[in-house]
Amino acid sequence: MELRVRLHARLAPAATPPPPPFPAAVVLPASRRLRTGCGSEGEERLGDPLVRRAGKENGGKYAKAVSATTGTTNCIAQEVKEVVVVCDPDYRDVFEGSIENLQIPLKFARPGKERQDSVFNGLQEIDGDSELVCVHDSARPLVSSEDVKKVLEDAVVHGAAVLGVPVKATIKEANNDSFVVKTLDRKTLWEMQTPQVMKPNLLKDGFELVKRDGLEVTDDVSIVEYLKHPVYITEGSYTNIKVTTPDDLLLAERLMNEKS
């Protein structure tokens, strides 16, 4: 779970934000180690989409929930001019039919060793004139089009924006021996989600710094943070969950049923 510190008081809305430019989207179908309880870690391949693995290895039990993976791609595609999906080539067919009716380019990039490597590979495939890049984990199949629009608009105004929600639970810092060090003030803590949207040049400059200093990051705005560039948090929805475990899949299916 990624956390950011920011007071929960909402900023005054910008006066009529400019219309968002046509951004490009980079969709990451899976992390390097899926935690679905399906098969051993050694059997997992980089870029295996959750939709294929969960549907195939659980006898299709969670097929309805994870089929929203391509629906997520479709939702993002409605707001951008092109989509780059980072996945193993064997799984391209999962996505090829998802945006065929939207008449925008669908490109592919190979996954890297770590998340930041996959994002970097996807970034190389976007058009050079793209004004924004929208990075999204398709393991968050319940993101709403309204939240996508909001974070895109905020990125236009601020240069970088990320969906997030205020932390509900009490968060404690612990030492290496699992003893509590202190209790953090949850009024200043946010749980990060995706999409995360930023100007491509910021992300590229951040990658240069990360590579130079040998840094490892777990989300995309962290790369921009290393440049000391402000990142705006767009308040999202608690239903935009990340599906990484069987319990997550069951919850996602229930939420989808409630929407339908």
TrEMBL record:
Biological process according to GO? isoprenoid biosynthetic process
Q: Which UniProt keywords apply?
A: Nucleotidyltransferase, Transferase
Q: Which GO terms describe its molecular function?
A: 2-C-methyl-D-erythritol 4-phosphate cytidylyltransferase activity
Species in which this protein is naturally found: Dichanthelium oligosanthes
Q: What is this protein called?
A: 2-C-methyl-D-erythritol 4-phosphate cytidylyltransferase, chloroplastic
What the entry lists under CDD domains is as follows: CDP-ME_synthetase (cd02516)
What's the family?
Belongs to the IspD/TarI cytidylyltransferase family. IspD subfamily.
One family from Pfam that matches here is: IspD
